[in-house]
Design a protein that fits this description.
Reverse transcriptase domain-containing protein; RT_dom; DNA/RNA_pol_sf; 3 domains; mainly alpha; 52% helix; two-stranded antiparallel sheet
């Protein structure tokens, strides 16, 4: 304490641990997309390049060229490219030959979410299931030591926070049932209930949302932010139909697209559109959250089967 280190000129990169460090880094890397011809996505220090082609061999050539262009830019700007952390993944409906598929991984971790090449979200759900199981073990350890309110706070902090990360993206997976099962176990631990106890009354009593309810809420929140860029039925035709205020849902040839967050979030909005127009967004979301607390859903179909939702 009270001692100052010697000043050293920073000739490369940005100083770590400084207030301006993150901003200087973003400025430093900002022109990377202009140096690489393919589409790129930048998020903090994560960089993703997207190459698209119908021919596998040509696609591989594009990937190699992108890697070369990026490497040249990194060297010229004093960046060190960690090749051990550089991953390639291939999304296709065709079966690639072995010499192509061997150059790609079946699953990669992107911003904390595991993405597999079939977009099943199975690896990610398995990953968070392990994390949630450890939290349940923790809840069991403290269940007889602290009041229920403390355990509930721990549930919010360590269990629900894991579920909600990226839920809009993977929440409509067929494997979501695995998360719901773990959630039921956690609820029974909090309430010290029997392992076969019916959980819907417990969700209502504790005022906790099921993973399906959280998916519905987060999806509609996401859609409300995207409303200015959405296309409605009234933008497509001038007929005065009851669905003219619906968000237009494009034709989907693949079931994968039909169950994607892009389509499902629009369907959720359309199911609630009569209430969205009734309230300001913040009031609507508050009322929706309270309504969901009274209606714990185990399947998304239960929500769509509710006719004329009112709150």
């Amino acid at each position: 304490q009270g001692n100052w280190s010697n000043e050293v000129e920073v000739k490369c990169g940005v100083p770590q641990g400084s207030v301006l460090g993150p901003l200087l880094f973003l400025i430093h890397i900002n022109d990377l997309p202009s140096a690489v011809k393919t589409k790129s996505l930048l998020y903090a220090d994560d960089t993703t390049f997207l190459n698209v082609h119908t021919d596998f061999d040509t696609l591989q050539e594009h990937v190699n060229k992108t890697f070369e262009e990026a490497s040249v830019w990194f060297r010229a700007n004093g960046f060190l490219l960690n090749e051990n952390k550089t991953q390639n993944i291939l999304f296709t409906l065709k079966q690639p030959s072995d010499h192509i598929s061997n150059n790609f991984l079946p699953c990669v971790k992107f911003l904390g979410i595991y993405i597999d090449n079939n977009l099943t979200w199975k690896p990610h759900i398995e990953y968070i299931s392990k994390r949630l199981s450890r939290v349940i073990f923790l809840l069991r350890r403290i269940m007889n030591c602290v009041p229920e309110s403390y355990i509930k706070s721990a549930y919010y902090a360590f269990f629900q926070s894991i579920i909600r990360y990226g839920l809009v993206i993977w929440g409509n997976s067929t494997k979501i049932e695995d998360i719901l099962i773990l959630q039921k176990k956690a609820i029974r631990v909090i309430t010290k209930s029997h392992q076969l106890e019916h959980c819907k009354p417990l969700f209502i009593k504790l005022e906790l949302q099921t993973v399906i309810n959280l998916y519905i809420f987060d999806s509609i929140s996401y859609t409300l932010k995207q409303l200015p860029s959405q296309i409605f039925n009234s933008n497509i035709h001038l007929y005065n139909t009851r669905n003219k205020s619906n968000i237009a849902i494009e034709y989907c040839r693949l079931s994968k697209k039909q169950h994607s967050h892009v389509i499902t979030s629009k369907k959720i909005y359309n199911n609630l559109k009569h209430l969205v127009s009734k309230y300001p967004s913040n009031i609507f979301l508050t009322k929706l959250y309270k309504w969901l607390l009274k209606n714990p859903f185990y399947h998304l179909s239960e929500f769509f089967n509710v006719k004329d939702i009112q709150f």
